[in-house]
Amino acid sequence: MSLVSFSLRRPVATIAFIILFVIAGINSYRKLEHENMPQVEIPFVTITTTYPGAGPKEIEAAVTKNIEDAVSGVSGVKHMYSTCMQNIAQTLVEFQMEMDIDVVATEVREKIDLIIDNLPEEAEQPQILKVNVNAKPVANFILVGTQSLDELYDYADEILSDKLALAPGVAEVQIVGGEELELQVILDGEKLSSHNLTIAQILDILRKRNAKIPAGTLLNESQEVNVTFAGNFRGLEEVRNLELTLSSSRSIRLRDVAQVSLAAKETRNLAFYDGRPAIDLKIVKKDDANAVKVVQHIREIVRKTRPLLPGGMELIWFNDDADFIAASLYDARNNIFLGIALTSLILFAFLQEIRSVFIISLTMPISVIISLFFIHFFGFTLNMITLLALGTSVGILVANSIVVIEHIFKRLEAGDNPKEAALSGTHSILVTVVASAGTNIIVFVPVAFMSGLVGRFFYPFAISMVIVTLVSLVISFTLTPILAAKLLRQNMPKPSFFMRGYQFVWNLLYGKTLRFYLRSLRFCAKAPLFFLFLGFLGLVLTLVYIAPLVGMSFFPNNDRGEFLVKIEYPTDYNIKKSAERTLIAAQRIRSLPEVKRTVSLIGKVQGVMGKVNQGVHLAEISVITSRKDERNQTMTQMRELMRQEFLNDTDCIVGVNVTSVVGGSETDIELEVTGYDFKTLDQIGDSMVNIATESGMLVDMESTVRIGKTEIQILPHRELLHDYGISEELLGLMIRGNIEGIKVGSYRIGARSLDIRVQLEHKEGLEQLRNFSLMSKEGKPISIEAIAYFEKQKIPIQIVRAEKQRSVKLFANMAPGAALSDAIEYLNKHIQAILPPGYEMNYVGRVEKMGEAQVSFAEAFLTASLLLYLLIAAIMESWTQPFIIMTTLPMALIGLFLMLFIMNTTMSLMGMLGTMILIGIAVNDAILIMENVKMLRDQGTPTKEAMFASVEEKFRSVIMTSLAAILGIAPMAFGQGLGCEIRNSCGITVIGGLISSTVLTLYFVPLIYIRFNRKS
Question: pLDDT at residue 902 above 60?
Fold first, then answer.
């Protein structure tokens, strides 16, 4: 018994099953977690090594090369990037997508363990971390108040962060804008000298006198007692009164030669909210946590915490991901319902019968709701990609039910009763409907199995489309015939006066359109090869002239009303100077229209590999503007306004970025050149910036070439040091204590453990060094200039390496209206021309991902086309008819590129996805026509007349299903709500291709069939 027969025999049972799945779908919708994009795991591992006091060159030679050599032996390494900075070496290893991040991280640790002994003794243990792109900041809020910055930081670090870290789904709380407290021992150099004391002696005394040692346990008959030697410091007075030595029968204590206090560490980063000193707190979610739920938990904690804040403190919510995700998903859901409504209207316009429209319109939401159950079953979230699948399928869903209803009507007109008409009408079109649904399914099998990042990203889309199509197919063979048997009759109620007038006008216009089409088709049939040539010529002209103007891009950026202005000042700036200029820059930005608030960070910024992201010369300004639906300027115009504010600031590098769809704010273009000579690489870097500027297609250009930072090297007179009995190690230790200070143990306050730092009192500039003296073995003071000399030089602030070679990088964003593909072509042509032998250029970041995606989509397109041909051949039992049907595919490219050109939209990855959708849709009309021709030919109708009769009979179905598909997708394609940019890019592509494929199908399929079947 077929599914159709069972449904008509057992309608109550069938509807009961459908209601059950609808309830399951509604319940699944409540449980579906909301995300902006599907979670994709990319295997990254970072190795960070701290080498105190070392410059970039020393770190490269002693640390980075050893680590790179060790890690390169791990299987599955795709890319390796290293950045050598003052005190720090960082290596990022990217593995192939198929590698298990836990396995490769373990292998990396094993390789690093083998070369630990090869690293300098002063270098700290390398920290090896798995990088998860899904573990990203989802909320950001600001703590301001009348208290000092130290007090604000202390409260944020000790109380706020602990509360927030306990929220479900929170991985960490990042704090910027202050430093931890420490116990500072600021030594007076003159007093030290007068008492014949040195820094080394103070360090040794503090280390020995601050000891807490577990002594073990004591046992008696019934008890076990722990014993601990508690020789650690228990209060500041105890530290101040620490006895150092006896001189002239007088005890010398630490307070006699030093100031002892609790104070913040040296300030290396600052935060400001609208110009006010602040503490910035970023909430980072766990990789598997749901962003919306995490933000909801954080909001509740913040709501409860605000009344408990100390007087004068204020906790301000700056931004989060949840609002945008909720608003964009809400807009996407509205687009789906609007698409259903528009589709119902076009159906009513054609069918002119409310019962048929009701049947078809009911199947669409039911199919969508039931699909939600299976989407939840597969473990997907409700995100932009899965909603895009549901949105683009709205117009497609209706096609199956339309065809079924039309054939049921034919059987009713032939005299069958409603039940028989429903059964025979559905059976008569069974093969065509299955073929149509099969074409929609078969094209997404290659998409689901695409490799690389794009494959992981679009897997939920492909599976969701398959689910929706299968559910729609089942509904077309169950609910549609059941409702048709119950609601449709041979003698339908007479239409009202208004409807009769409407039918008269509609039928008149429809009749004229049909007659015009048939006359034009017969005219073209007189010289089919000529008109086929014209169509082919139109395709060639489109690909040659229009497609290059459209250009290629990676992913459309969503307008979230959030911008990130990054500023890099001269490398010799201190934090005070950087803060002054940043506050002025933030004030200028806040004066722009639609800007609501800003947060400025100095010293620590978001960064990508190859860019320094820590340093007092770096700053970033997070900008919140009005929502896109509340302001007049577009995202591109707002970015340009911000860029214009910095045109005259020629001594700093400024970039204006927006948050990408997968998080972060990486630039559009990241190009690297590898080689060996520093000077040559620097020259290439400067030339690349000039070339990018001359192109006119790029903005925010910068390279990794930087003016070196001034370094003062203190070179010892070794013979004099030996005569005075001072070792080089002791001298270096004392100089470090003079300038930076030296950590010596810890000081506990309750559950807190603070560092103890010993350093000499600071003086301005070089006086800090020139006034420094130390004691000889005879106890006489010696000036530093007597045993060492100073030498100034420029050192690089960073050394960038790629694939175990030195490299220079170019970063840039696209100028408004420019296409990424055009910019790449320009850079390839001009940069390759300046590269010396042995130097190689490569694109990384978005450009590399786009190239991989193009290859993946090309493979998927070819595979889907082959599978589609074989499927149609199997269903129609013919090798030639599938060829005729598939001529509609290249014809879809004409409308596709024309629509992108008209809408001033580039072909992005979402556009490529739309092209895959077109493959399945474009052939449906041709299948409908060719299946009917086959039936007429079997009845003995001549070839030419069979084709004319078929297109005349199926003209209404073709136009109706195509318009239904177009209007169903139109809200996705032309909507202007939040998050619409991704939907627009896909929807515009589908609509453009549908328009041209529908029109040309009505001509090309008949002409090709007539031309190549003329003998029969």
Answer: yes
Residue 707's DSSP bridge partners are: none
b/e map 744-771, b = 16+ CB within 10 Å: bbbbeeeeeebbbbbbbeeeeeeeebeb
* CA neighbours closer than 13 Å in the CB half-sphere of residue 630: 10
C-beta of residue 340 within 8 angstroms of C-beta of residue 465 = no
And the tokens for 725? 């009995």
- 8 A C-beta contact, residue 907 and residue 900: yes
What is the pLDDT at residue 660? 66
Amino acid at 547: A
Does the pLDDT of residue 349 top 50, yes or no? yes
pTM of the model: 0.80
DSSP codes of every residue in 231-274: ES--SHHHHHT-EEEEETTEEEEGGGTEEEEEEEPPP--EEEET
Helix (H, G, I), strand (E, B) or coil at 714: strand
CA 667 → CA 598, 657, 847, distances in Å? 21, 7, 10
Residue with tokens 């954080």: 298
For residue 597, give the H/E element and its range: strand 595-604
Q: Which residue bears the tokens 């099969």?
A: 438
Mean pLDDT, the chain, as a whole number? Answer: 84
What does the pLDDT read at residue 664? 47
Distance in angstroms (rounded) separating the CA atoms of residues 988 and 998 = 15
Q: How far is residue 926's CA from residue 924's CA, in Å, rounded to a whole number?
A: 5
State the average pLDDT over residues 208-215.
Answer: 81
Q: Residue 47: which of 118, 129, 138 has the closest Cα?
A: 129
Q: Give the pLDDT band of residue 259 (cuts 50, 70, 90).
A: confident
**Nearest CA-CA partner of 790 in 715, 891, 883:** 715
Query: Cβ-count burial of 265 within 10 angstroms (0-12 exposed, 13-18 middle, 19+ buried)?
Result: middle
C-alpha gyration radius of the chain: 36
Sole residue written with tokens 């630039």? 667
**Nearest 5°: CA angle at 125, between 122 and 127?**
140
- Over 60: is that where the pLDDT of 247 sits? no
Residue that is written with structure tokens 């005729």 in the block? 884
Structure tokens at 356: 């048929």
For the ranges 447-456, 565-574, 830-839, 932-941, the maximum mean pLDDT occurs at 830-839
- For residue 169, what are the CA distances in angstroms to 83, 142, 285, 799, 929? 31, 20, 6, 37, 55
> Are residues 950 and 1016 in contact, defined by beta-carbon separation less than 8 angstroms?
no
Cβ contact 298:290 at 8 Å: no
Helix (H, G, I), strand (E, B) or coil at 145: strand
Q: Which residue has the higher pLDDT, 606 or 636?
A: 636
Residue type, 203: L
